[in-house]
Design brief:
The chain is an alpha+beta fold and 282 residues long. The chain has helices at residues 2-22, 52-69, 77-169, 178-183, 225-235; strands at residues 202-208, 214-220, 243-248, 251-253, 271-278. Strand 1 and strand 2 form a beta hairpin.
């Protein structure tokens, strides 16, 4: 009985597929389906307590009723194979379409990722350009301040010169002050100008790593030594062993307390060379 019911259901499936394929080229095949009014056979829900055997029996009755009102003959084995082949082709086509859609979505995601990467790269480049412009402006300002300081020194020298001429040349003839002026040397040489202390706000640090390579980076003079250590940890490629920083001459090993001190306080401004050494575990 179960085999007969199963064969009937398969026969119904093939009959429905054949009917769909026969009408797949109809002009109104894409129009929305309007269910018929009243009771339609096979659309009602199975009653409570139904078992697979009762459902199959109902399917047999539906098939027999359909067969009585239908002049078409049951499908032959050849027709079943053709229907199965057609169904498998449809399934394969749907699978190809799904794979192509997933491939397009993957390509689109990759494009979005590359676009975001380019935008981030442009932002980083813009920040670097702004930083370089800021440093160039600071250098121009320093040069201008240095030029003004030299000008003030020259003006002071000229005033001192005029005072000496007035002091040693008073009460004599008009040609008397000419001799002391000629004998007095004019401090025009830069070596005779009073030295001016320059304040640096940038520090160029070169770090020699364990494998012989080196890293070079510019830091603010007021930045802590911990910023240099963090830069080394992020960019070193000679292993992840613990390390400490030191200078070769004069030899000095920087402690954890030194990491909180600014570079200018540690005497690393305007430039310095640091060495990475393995930290011995006690």
């Amino acid at each position: 009985m179960e085999c007969t019911a199963l064969e009937s259901l398969i026969e119904m499936g093939f009959s429905q597929n054949r009917a769909l394929m026969e009408h797949e080229n109809d002009p109104d095949v894409d129009e929305p389906y309007v269910p018929p009014q009243g009771h339609v056979l096979g659309t009602e829900e199975p009653p409570e307590g139904s078992t697979p055997e009762t459902v199959e029996a109902r399917a047999d009755l539906v098939e027999e009723g359909s067969a009585e009102g239908d002049d078409k003959h049951p499908l032959t084995e050849e027709e079943k194979r053709e229907q199965t082949k057609r169904m498998m082709e449809l399934i394969a086509q749907k699978q190809r379409e799904r794979e192509e859609r997933e491939k397009r979505e993957t390509i689109e995601r990759e494009k979005q990722r590359r676009k975001q990467g380019q935008e981030l790269s442009m932002i980083r480049q813009k920040l670097q350009e702004d930083e370089m412009k800021k440093m160039a402006e600071e250098r121009r300002r320093e040069k201008m301040e240095e030029k003004l300081a030299k000008q003030r020194v020259r003006e002071k020298i000229e005033r001192d010169k005029a005072e000496r001429v007035k002091k040693f040349g008073g009460g004599g003839s008009s040609q008397a002050p000419a001799e002391p002026v000629q004998e007095t040397p004019v401090p025009s040489s830069p070596s005779q100008e009073p030295p001016t202390k320059r304040e640096y706000d940038q520090c160029r640090i070169q770090v020699r790593l364990l494998d012989g390579t080196s890293l070079t980076q510019t830091f603010k003079a007021k930045e802590q030594l911990a910023a240099v250590r963090l830069y080394v940890e992020l960019n070193r490629k000679d292993g992840g062993e613990p390390f400490h920083l030191l200078t070769s001459f004069p030899r000095r090993i920087f402690t954890d307390e030194d990491m909180e001190k600014p570079l200018q306080e540690l005497g690393l401004v305007p430039s310095a060379v640091l060495i990475v050494a393995k930290k011995c575990n006690s």
